[in-house]
Each structure stands twice: as structure tokens, then as C-alpha cells.
Amino acid sequence: MALQTNLNEKDKKTIAWVLFAALIFVIAWFLIRPTVSAIRTTGDKIEQAEATRTQYQNKIMYLTSAESLYGKAVTDLNDSTADFYPVMDSSEIDRMVTSYVLKSGLFAESLNIKMPDGSVEERPYAYSKITSSHSSSTATANNSDAETLLVPYDSARNNANSTSSSGVQCVALSITMTGSQAACQAMIDDLCTKPAVRITGFSWEKLDPVERLNPTTGLYEYVDSGKVRLKLDVNLYMADFADYEVAGVEG
Q1: 1, 19, 89, 180: most buried, per Cβ within 10 A?
Q2: Rounded Cα distance, 94 and 64, in Å
Q3: Residue 177 pLDDT > 80
Q4: Which residues contact 149 (CB under 8 A, 6 or more apart)?
Q5: Using CA atoms, how far apart are residues 251 and 244, in angstroms rounded to an integer?
Q6: Which pLDDT value is given to residue 3?
Q7: Per DSSP, what are the bridge partners of residue 176?
Q8: C-alpha–C-alpha distance, residues 86 and 141, integer Å
Q9: How far apart are CA 29 and CA 36, in angstroms?
């Protein structure tokens, strides 16, 4: 017996369209959904790859900045230590100082050398340029909002208030010499121009008159020798530093 329905032609078409749409949805669900999921996964991978690329770019930028900072530190170190004498023993210092005195037209009567036992602990003069600019430089570094590698470097350098770890050694010299007052003054003036030398004290005294023959009278007389005795106390600074430019290249 055949199944009888009361559906008209319009209802049949509606049902057919619904079934067709359901079929399309099922096909789309099983065929298109994996593709959509794959696209989403690919998008996540792309975002992760972009994040990784950004991270590597930042590392490269910081590496470049670090190399520039290292170069600046090496330059600053070389500039600040270029005028120091190389580390010498007492005999080498004796030869150097004695030669310098003789070339200055003076006679060295005595030389006392006190060798260092470590790095010097010394502060700048109270009213020196380096002291007056210390606080303002530090304030500028502290108020800067730029979080760069240069800010902590400058801040650390400006806040340094001790030379105990500098590697710079100080030799205390006491020199007594004789000669003309002009030659002694010329030596003092010359020593004041040497960055690695610091005069800590000096004193003058005239030499005793000397006995000379007066050609006119034929008699010996005591006359002014025209010479003075200069006692000079000097700090001599010396240091040996590695070639950090070569070390940076080898590293």
C-alpha cells in the first residue's frame, strides 16, 4: 500500500530546499572546517614568528648598542689613562727622574722614592672642574626617561667617588736639587703641565756664599753663588692597562 501524504507541491519544494541546505552545511562542516582550523593555526604560527622576529631584532639592536657602548667605554678609558706613566720599579723611576733633573740644568742632591703597595685612593681638588660638574651630571642622568644602556653607564661613571679600584698607582717622590732660581722655577712650571704629576709641596733656600778670588784685589771673597736649593715633593702616577680594543675584537 503506497504512503499517502497531504503535502502539496510547495511544501515538498520547501522540504527539499531545507534538506539541500542541511547537506551543504554538513559538507561545509567536514570539508571547510579543517581548512579554517588550519588557517587559524597558520595565523597563530605567523604571530608567533613575528613575535620571535621582533625579539631577535631587539636583541640585535641591543647587541649593536652594547658594542657601541663598549667602544665608548674603551675610548673613555684610553683617554683618561693616556697620560699616566707605565708601571716602573724604583730603579727605573730613579733613572727617569735623575735624567729629567739634569736636562733641566739642575743638580740632584738627593732623591727619595716611596713605592706604592696598591691602587691610589685619591679625590679631586675641592674646587676643581671635575668636582663641580659631578652633581649636575648625575642629576641629568637620573632625570632622564630614556632607558638606554648609556644612562646606567654615565650614571655609574658620574657616581664613582673612589679611585681604589682604578689600577692607578701613586709614587711619592722627594727631590732635593740645586741650580739657578730661573731653572728651578722652569722645572716647577713644566711639572704643573704634566697630567700624571702632582706637586704636593716645595721649599726654597739660598745656598751659602762661595769663596772666590777677586782678580782686582787678589783676595778671596765670599760672594753669592747665584744658586738656590729646591726641595720638591711630587706624586707620580702610573698604570698599566690591557688593550681592550684588541680584547673586544678577539672576544
Answers
A1: 180
A2: 47
A3: yes
A4: 62, 65, 66, 69
A5: 10
A6: 44
A7: 110, 231
A8: 34
A9: 10
